[in-house]
Specification:
With 208 residues, the protein is an alpha/beta fold. It has a single domain, classed as Maf protein, CATH 3.90.950. It has six helices and seven strands. Strands 1, 2, 3, 4, 5, 6 and 7 form a seven-stranded mixed beta sheet that branches. Strand 1, helix 1 and strand 2 form a beta-alpha-beta unit. Helix 5 crosses helix 6.
Length: 208
């Protein structure tokens, strides 16, 4: 059973400014003081898990052990069906040592081209996954999994969002909306995104 969140401060176990900003925006209505791992100077643990659940859990536990405060970690990634659901948990690794999302997006395109995958939405189906791990000071952990289905587009479009948003076009949008998540406002993206869906599950369980 999920626990109710009643403490005023939460550590967000990320050094990614884009993720930290999204999380702050989503939790703003609950008046929770947010501090990121980067704000507190906490080290980033090695992500040795082979699933989103494992990596989110180890990051949340590392933060709660270092801070003594409830800690929220996100592990997310993009799975391209025609690439055997790669890069998946290794999405950040595909960005190279400089963690440049454009490097990762170009690699996806190169891999699809090498497999002669047609430039159609049906052939380039992809799914964004997000697992949130909420760790409490007694090391009890709760997990919430959100997903967003779509297709890989190329060339990339849009200057918003972060990560692989410019090459991801969600499916099933009202009125045949063909924008990538990088062409949406933050509010529009958060309303449908994998991370937004995982957050709504967490909010219902822990803040509702």
């Amino acid at each position: 059973m999920a626990r109710r969140f009643v403490l005023p401060k939460l550590v967000v176990a990320t050094h990614n400014r884009g993720k930290a900003g999204e999380i702050r925006a989503m939790l703003a209505p609950f008046r929770v003081e947010i501090a990121s791992a980067a704000d507190l100077g906490l080290p980033a643990p090695d992500e040795t898990g082979t699933t989103f659940e494992e990596n989110a859990t180890l990051k949340a536990l590392a933060a709660v052990r270092a801070s003594g405060l409830p800690s929220l970690a996100d592990d997310s990634g993009l799975g391209v069906h025609a690439l055997d659901h790669q890069p998946g948990v290794y999405t950040a690794d595909w960005e190279g040592p400089t963690r440049d999302a454009m490097v990762g997006m170009r690699r996806i395109q190169d891999e699809l081209a090498a497999r002669h995958v047609p430039q159609t939405d049906a052939a380039r189906i992809a799914t964004f996954h997000c697992v949130l791990a909420l760790a409490w000071p007694d090391e009890h952990v709760e997990l919430f999994h959100g997903r967003l289905d779509g297709a890989i587009v190329w060339p990339s479009r849009g200057a918003g969002g972060h990560g692989y948003d410019p090459c991801f076009q969600p499916v099933g949008q009202a009125g045949g909306d063909m924008r990538t998540t990088a062409e949406m406002s933050d509010a529009e993206k958060n309303a449908i995104s994998h991370r937004g869906r995982a957050f709504r599950m967490m909010v219902e369980a822990c803040f509702g």
